[in-house]
Structure formats: structure tokens, C-alpha cells
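Q: I'm building a small set of examples for a reading group on sequence design. Run inverse folding on the following structure and report the sequence directly after it, with nothing in between.
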């Protein structure tokens, strides 16, 4: 392994690593735009120029391999002048519209212009104005903001495996475009907005909706399929505005020495590599169907007499607990694969141990679609069932054979508890529920099931609660609360815990306590990182003004 010197610091690196990679690994900042750990370095932006002894010209750190005895300097006057000149050229036609740009507050160019750019430009000519271009139904391209780092083009070429995106024209007229008359249609289009270091590529879903410095980003998991992609959910108060990918393999912003209370994102050279995992467009946009308005009152179902006319949480929970006691072994349950591991544990404990029932089933969802006709990335693996694996493992620990929802209804229960969200999967079976004396639905969105159920208890969406999912690979992942909640809806686990307390007189606890119990009772949970899963690593902006 070669040892070399950078800014007077001796560094030993793996053979083949570039100067830029070595600097990043050792906390030495070298600015760049075009470099990304997912692609081969191209030396396109020239921002990472450094001075190397015995070399007459400045060299790009992203393409220069570190060798034994090399001496690198990153802060000399010569390097500073080069950076300033490069930024001046980049800003020649770049509009100074930061107050209107969606990227303002997380823009690498904005940061570098303040830190390395000239205080004035030698160019006095009017800037070129261009119309924005729709590259797809999801992505808008503003060519006047583009710095031609070509991250998006290299993403399509090297990661997706497609030549759909290319550079057209040359010099000051160059722009990113598709083939004439064609739009980007592949299922991973939205990632190029994450990759863009400036505001040239934006998603139509987020464009001009909210300022990023008003948002709070939370590390959570995509809840749309069992792939379990890691995401940031950016929210303000009660609303999620966008979803972005995150990569567990890169260094964490939370432990990085440059993090401070006023910077929501890591420093630019960390930010550039933080967005290097890729999520599908369904996961990027699908969060909308998993949210609710949080303002609903508690419905008691069409037959209010079941709760003695008292439509409040204490009366309803006491009524449900009493009905479960009376039904005993005739108590049955159906659980959604969108339920968390902790909710699944409480649900099965309630049905089997507290009530003595054995008919427990899981809702079946259709297979997730995949893009396999072109490209290297496959879209959404497995079922549209993010926690089917975890629920199956917990059921095995309880010695429960999970039935289909058809089989549960056909078992003739006296009391049926359906823990959602069901996303209308129960609708075809609603007419068969008439033979069951009491049906309870716990869900956060209305459906034919909630209209038919005798008792409806409004729970919360994935963005409103804490818990864990087990993805298709068996990895336990943390689902974190993203938005505030308001109204009378309650956390699903607390509802189940209160019902269990009404039956047995004992509480099973909240998220932390139930996860600890899972580690003791379910073998697949024994080796998980409890502290890592229960710790709060949600990110905040500007010292959390909104929270």
C-alpha cells in the first residue's frame, strides 16, 4: 500500500485509490462536482485540481492515482486561483436565481461559490436564457443551470445500462438531452435529480413546492415492497414533500466531524457521495398513497350500539377487549404485511396468548412489477409486502401457521380483528363478513372494509410511527416517524397494547420494549443492533425551527 503526503499529512492508502478518495477518507477537503463513487472518474469539471510536486501542471485529484512518495498540495495560491477561475467560467451563464431554485440550501455550486469563487466576474455580457426541457413526466431539465458534470449521463450509461441520455452540442451551447421525440421512461428516472449537484434536474413532484431549508429529513425505509430500500423522507409539520435515496455504505453525516446544528446536510464533498444508492420511481412517489390527513375523528362503525354509544378511545378499547375475552378460541385475526414487526408481535400475542385463538392470516398482495426488458437495475423485487418476511418469522416463533384471508374468514370466527392497512385488498371479501358477529378494522385510510366493520380504530401511516421491518433479505430495518400527527388517530402499537392490557391486565410496552422482547423470543432478532435501531438519528435543519 503506497504512502504519500497531502498537505503535510502522511497517508497510507490501498493500491489504486485516487488522491481524491484518499483525501475524503482522511478528512481533507478537495472540492468537486463530477466525481461520484458509483461511476468511473472522468475529470470533467476540473474543480478538484491539486498541485503535485515534480508535475509541471495542476492535476485532477479524481483521476490521479496515489503513488509512493507523492507530495500533494491542495491549498496553494496556484490551486486557489484555478478553482476561482473554474467557478467563474461555470457561473458565466449560470443564472443567479438561488432564491427561486429548488436546490438552494443544498446546492454544491452555491456552497463552492461562497467558499472558493471570485467576489466578482470579469464577464459583463448578458447571460444566455433557455427554456426548461421535460426529459420525462417526472424530470424537468433547466439547461441554463447545468454545469455539465455529466453525472446523469454516466448514471444512465454505467448504472442503468442505457444510452437514453446524452450530451448534445458543444461549448457554451452544450446541454443534456434525450433522442428527438423520446422521453425517459425507465423506472429509475428520479435518481438523476438526486445525483445532480445543482438545480438543473428537478422532479415535477417537488418542483417549486417548498424550500429545502424548511424541511426536516428523517432516515427511514421505503415501505412499498420487501426490497427495503433506505430513504430520506423530507417533511414539514404534517406533510411529506419528497423522498430521496440514501446509502448505508457511505460514511454517516451524524458521526462526521463537519456536522453542526446549522448545516442540515453534510459538507458538499460528503453530500456528493451520500446519494449513491438508487430507488425506483414507484418508491420515490409511492409515499403519497401511504399518508393520511390526520384530522379524522374516531368512527365507531355503522353499528354504534356495539360501543354503547360512547365514541371515545377508552370505551372502544374496553369494548373490544371484552369481546375478545368472550370470543376466546373463536377469535381470529388478519394482519397486513405493511404492519411493523412490533405490531405483528402484539397482534399475535393478543390473538393467540390473550384470547386463545389460532386462526391468523396475512393479507396477500400482488407481485411487485419489475423492469427486466432493458437496463441493469431491476425495479422492485418480490411482493408489494414490505414486512411479509418479518411477520412470517414472528408467526413461526409463536408456532402459528399463517393462513390466507379466505381461510380465516372461512373458519367461522365469532370475532375478527383486521390489522391494516389493507389497501382495498379486503374489498372483494367484504360481503362475506356479514356472517361474523363482530368485525374490527384498524386502518388509517377509508375503504369498503371500514364501512362494513362494526368497530373502526384509526391508526397511523408508516410516516407517523416508529417500528421495524424485515426486508426480503432478512435484514431488520428501522421505520421512523417522519411527520407530526394531529386529531384522534393513534399509534397502532399503542392501540394493541391497550387492548392487551384490557384483556390480561398487563402491558407489553412501546416500541423499545417490544423490540427487546422480539430479541429474546424470536431467533432471527437475537443479533440485531438494538441501540442502532432505537436511537434517534433523524436530521434537522436550522436547529429545528419548525419542530
Amino acid at each position: 500500500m503506497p504512502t504519500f503526503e497531502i498537505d503535510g499529512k502522511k497517508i497510507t492508502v490501498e493500491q489504486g485509490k485516487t488522491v481524491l478518495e484518499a483525501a475524503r477518507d482522511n478528512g481533507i477537503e478537495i472540492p468537486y462536482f463530477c466525481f461520484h463513487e458509483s461511476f468511473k472518474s472522468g475529470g470533467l469539471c476540473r474543480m478538484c485540481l491539486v498541485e503535485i510536486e515534480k508535475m509541471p501542471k495542476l492535476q485532477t485529484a479524481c483521476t490521479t492515482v496515489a503513488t509512493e512518495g507523492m507530495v500533494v498540495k491542495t491549498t496553494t495560491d496556484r490551486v486557489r486561483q484555478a478553482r476561482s477561475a473554474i467557478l467563474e467560467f461555470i457561473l458565466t451563464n449560470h443564472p443567479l436565481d438561488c432564491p427561486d431554485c429548488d436546490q438552494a440550501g443544498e446546492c454544491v455550486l452555491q456552497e463552492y461559490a461562497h467558499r472558493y469563487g471570485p467576489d466578482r466576474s470579469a464577464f459583463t455580457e448578458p447571460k444566455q436564457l433557455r427554456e426548461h426541457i421535460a426529459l420525462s413526466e417526472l424530470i424537468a431539465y433547466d439547461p441554463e443551470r447545468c454545469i455539465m458534470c455529466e453525472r446523469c449521463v454516466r448514471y444512465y450509461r454505467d448504472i442503468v445500462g442505457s444510452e437514453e441520455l446524452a450530451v448534445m452540442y458543444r461549448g457554451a451551447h452544450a446541454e443534456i438531452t434525450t433522442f428527438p421525440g423520446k422521453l425517459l421512461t425507465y423506472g429509475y428516472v428520479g435518481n438523476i435529480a438526486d445525483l445532480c449537484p445543482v438545480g438543473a434536474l428537478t422532479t415535477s413532484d417537488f418542483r417549486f413546492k417548498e424550500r429545502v431549508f424548511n424541511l426536516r429529513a428523517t432516515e427511514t425505509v421505503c415501505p412499498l415492497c420487501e426490497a427495503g430500500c433506505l430513504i430520506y423522507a423530507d417533511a414539514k409539520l404534517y406533510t411529506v414533500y419528497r423522498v430521496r435515496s440514501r446509502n448505508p455504505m457511505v460514511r454517516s453525516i451524524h458521526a462526521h466531524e463537519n456536522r453542526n446544528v446549522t448545516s442540515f446536510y453534510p459538507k458538499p464533498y460528503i453530500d456528493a457521495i451520500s446519494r449513491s444508492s438508487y430507488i425506483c420511481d414507484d418508491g420515490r412517489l409511492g409515499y403519497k398513497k401511504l399518508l393520511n390527513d390526520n384530522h379524522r375523528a374516531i368512527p365507531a362503525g355503522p353499528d354504534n350500539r356495539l360501543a354503547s354509544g360512547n365514541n371515545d378511545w377508552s370505551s372502544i378499547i374496553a369494548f373490544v377487549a371484552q369481546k375478545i375475552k368472550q370470543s376466546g378460541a373463536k377469535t381470529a385475526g388478519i394482519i397486513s404485511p405493511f404492519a411493523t414487526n412490533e405490531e405483528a408481535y402484539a397482534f399475535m400475542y393478543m390473538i393467540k396468548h390473550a384470547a386463545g385463538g389460532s386462526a391468523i392470516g396475512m393479507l396477500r398482495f400482488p407481485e411487485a412489477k419489475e423492469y427486466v426488458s432493458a437496463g441493469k437495475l431491476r425495479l422492485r423485487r418480490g411482493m408489494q409486502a414490505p414486512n411479509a418476511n418479518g411477520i412470517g418469522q414472528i408467526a413461526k416463533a409463536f408456532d402459528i401457521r399463517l393462513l390466507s384471508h379466505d381461510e380465516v374468514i372461512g373458519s367461522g370466527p365469532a370475532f375478527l380483528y383486521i390489522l391494516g392497512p389493507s389497501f382495498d385488498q379486503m374489498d372483494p371479501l367484504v360481503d362475506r363478513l356479514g356472517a361474523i358477529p363482530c368485525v374490527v378494522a384498524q386502518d388509517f385510510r377509508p375503504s369498503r372494509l371500514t364501512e362494513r366493520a362494526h368497530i373502526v380504530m384509526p391508526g397511523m401511516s408508516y410516516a407517523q410511527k416508529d417500528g421495524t421491518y424485515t426486508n426480503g433479505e432478512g435484514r431488520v430495518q428501522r421505520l421512523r416517524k417522519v411527520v407530526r400527527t394531529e386529531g384522534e388517530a393513534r399509534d397502532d402499537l399503542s392501540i394493541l397494547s391497550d387492548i392487551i392490557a384490557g384483556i390480561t391486565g398487563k402491558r407489553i410496552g412501546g416500541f423499545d420494549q417490544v423490540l427487546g422482547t422480539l430479541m429474546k423470543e424470536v431467533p432471527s432478532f437475537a443479533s440485531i443492533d438494538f441501540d442502532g435501531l432505537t436511537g434517534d438519528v433523524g436530521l434537522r435543519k436550522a436547529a429545528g425551527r419548525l419542530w
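The chain has three domains: 3-80, 93-290, 319-536.
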